[in-house]
Specification:
The chain has 9 helices and no strands. It has helices at 6-17, 24-44, 48-71, 77-103, 108-113, 117-136, 146-165, 180-200, 202-216. The chain is globular.
Length: 217
């Protein structure tokens, strides 16, 4: 038999993920992905409270699906890909609607600040592309480590806080509005933590790629 190409390897990986795919954690991850267009719809139609509720439920399922998988021994290869994919797609959707909202702000500083949200999108796209490259090399992407988990929790907390109290679109901004300086500070801190998490994967990534290449020799 000839040597498998990257496409063949990627195809084999996905076929293998189909085994034992129908588990409660995987269904929860799938529901989180399905919820994304509903969140976007309610956000852009200015039904912010419903959008907040959707993101809150999404965050809760993200919190519990891993615990369910471990408790009931339902950890699967598909789950290791589907769970972070749901996170990444949700975070991309949140940052896109925030970028658009801030671009329309009457506050010039917030309009300029909107470009910070593009950093989150670039980071998530880099993670998605990186995962496919690893799969094409027959390497299963590494599960989230502590830095990644902290970054995810921070992202949801800060973006959820903005969704409640940000100027112009906060669901409860009538009662309390975040000062612009505090809003920008929170987002910048989140961006820093996010990129620290991204770079924390690099040493293990390099090690695994070197090990794979050594096996092929």
């Amino acid at each position: 038999m000839g040597k498998l190409t990257s496409v063949d390897t990627l195809k084999a990986q996905f076929e293998d993920m189909g085994k034992d795919a129908w588990t409660i954690p995987n269904l929860l991850s799938l529901l989180r992905i399905i919820a994304i267009p509903f969140f976007v719809y309610f956000f852009v139609t200015k039904k912010y409270l419903i959008a907040v509720i959707i993101i809150f439920i999404s965050g809760m399922t993200d919190l519990f699906d891993g615990k369910i998988a471990r408790h009931f021994n339902q950890i699967s290869k598909l789950g290791k890909l589907l769970d972070p994919a749901a996170d990444k797609l949700t975070q991309i959707a949140v940052t896109i609607v925030y970028f658009n909202e801030f671009r329309q702000s009457e506050d010039k500083a917030l309009r300029m600040f909107s470009y910070v949200f593009l950093l989150f999108i670039l980071k998530e796209l880099a993670m998605i592309v990186g995962s496919f490259i690893l799969l094409s090399m027959d390497i299963v992407p590494q599960a989230a480590i502590i830095y990644g988990k902290v970054a995810t929790v921070t992202f949801y907390l800060v973006m959820g806080f903005l969704m409640l109290f940000a100027p112009s679109f906060g669901a409860f901004s009538k009662f309390f509005t975040l000062p612009s300086w505090l809003l920008m500070t929170l987002v910048i801190i989140t961006a820093i933590i996010t990129f620290v998490a991204l770079f924390s994967y690099v040493p293990d990534l390099v090690k695994r790629i070197k090990a794979r290449k050594a096996e092929e020799k």
